[in-house]
Amino acid sequence: MTFLPLRIAILECDTPMPGTRAKYGSYGGVFTSLLKSGADALSYPGLTSSSGLSLSSYDVVSAQSYPNLSEIDAILISGSKHNSFDNDPWILKLVEFTEEVLKQRRVRIIGVCFGHQIVGRAMGVRVGRSEKGWEASVTAIDLTKRGQEIFGQPSLVIPFHPILFFDAF
Length: 169
Fold this sequence. Notes:
By secondary structure, this protein is of the alpha/beta class. Helices cover 32% and strands 25% of the residues. It has 2 domains: 6-125, 3-Layer(aba) Sandwich (Rossmann fold); 130-169, no CATH class. The protein has helices spanning 18-24, 27-42, 89-103, 114-122, 145-151; strands at residues 6-12, 53-59, 74-77, 108-111, 126-129, 137-142, 155-160, 164-167.
């Protein structure tokens, strides 16, 4: 059986810290490593770190380059030291691109930290700095039935740091 590759575009919204940069080069390198490790751990037919996965990176800050939606299946928006609620031209362009992705149904999107704030902003959610400042914790979450099927357990414990608020209504 032949599988088409899963094509994931990584949108790089910053440069990682020096130690991370020395090891991986960029956020594209960080997420490439994580996604390849995840592909191998899944034991899914036709999907491994060496086949069935096509990863590409785009500098959305300096180069402001973006993938063609017809050439990818999913998008990952990285973290950043920048504020998702600022109106710098590159951030506005990223929000606009994310809105375009959300309006169609084929290409999936996930945001990491800054990236999930951009997804929220593109959905019309007001984001801003928390009046309580930085907060970090480990939070237990109960999974839906589908989540339990995916992760093979009833709940997960995840790192959580709500430095921003989301005001959807």
